[in-house]
Amino acid sequence: xxxxLKKIATCFTVGAVALGAAACSGSPSNSAKGSxxxxxxxxxxxxxxxxxxQKFTKETGIAAKFVRLSSGETVARLDAAKADPExxxxxxxxxxxxxxxxxxxxxxxxxxPTAAQIPDKYKDAKHNWTGVYVGVLGFCSNQKVLDxxxxxxxxxxxxxxxxxxxxxxxxxxxxxxxxxxxTLWTQTVLGGSEDKGLGYMxxxxxxxxxxxxxxxxxxxxxGRGEVAVGLVFSHDCVKYRDQxxxxxxxSFPKExxxxxxxxxxxxxxxxxxxAAKKYIDWAISADAxxxxxxxxxxxxxxxxxxxxxxxxxxxxxxxxxxxDFVKAAAAKPELTARFDEEIASKxxx
Length: 349
Hints:
By secondary structure, the protein is an alpha/beta fold. The chain has helices spanning 5-11, 18-21, 46-60, 71-80, 95-103, 143-149, 178-191, 194-205, 217-223, 234-242, 273-284, 286-289, 291-294, 325-344, and strands spanning 37-42, 63-68, 89-94, 107-108, 130-142, 169-172, 208-212, 229-233, 248-251, 259-267, 300-301. Strands 1, 2, 3, 4, 5, 6, 7, 8, 9, 10 and 11 form an 11-stranded mixed β-sheet that branches. The longest helix has 20 residues, at 325-344.
């Protein structure tokens, strides 16, 4: 089944909720093996979400469609519809958000047999989520813009406070974006307290051009030369560079940086629970994790049997902070509220 350009545009609009999502998989509404149909809320790039759901349908006969939302939006939508869930599975996006959803009873435990293949450090002990990829937070810089400003490629968080970078940094808002919350939590860990973490973000605010909704957008904004630096997971910067934004360069802060575990989890009270479980079993597999590379998404897979590409970041080459996902999830609601009140709502100098 082919999709028209108009229909594709509808699918990829955040506002195209359950109705618009029905067209996204390009699959018939009734599967070849029964009437099961699942809706996936997806936190990855749109093309990867589409590749995942289409491949799952092809392999199982279970029709799958998706809606692309950032982590904060996903939790809000799950909470708003918890009495009558519109989604069955959450796939992709940092697991800090999954922790918030689990605390609210919006996702439920499922011990997938496939999860036995995944190292313990990449899965929740209570089975609320299983990690399917790892991404590292980095600096996605436009070399031409940096050269025009007389600024070197940033190699530390302190470098981003350079007055020459005023209005030259793009990042997302941590209330809506899991990527941006990773930045905020990274500063909290490096500073030793939430106050210190927010203190750094207040200084950074002077150099921020805007706070986007999506965590991947800053890479595109930098790629277009609208700012010098975007704060994104490095695999997103690689993807944009491969797509033609040749001025992009990737670097990592020497003080240490945060990372994401992208997860998959079962939405509480799913109307298609057995089909949703089959999707989760499949998503954890090495074959499913290999799909990312076919659409230019080079996150590091969590399944040891999955393929590793030279476009993937070598996790041993980057200084990673001690990122406690359970603690981060518990702190997220209050910390993002403080960010909104103390930083995002205040005009930069």
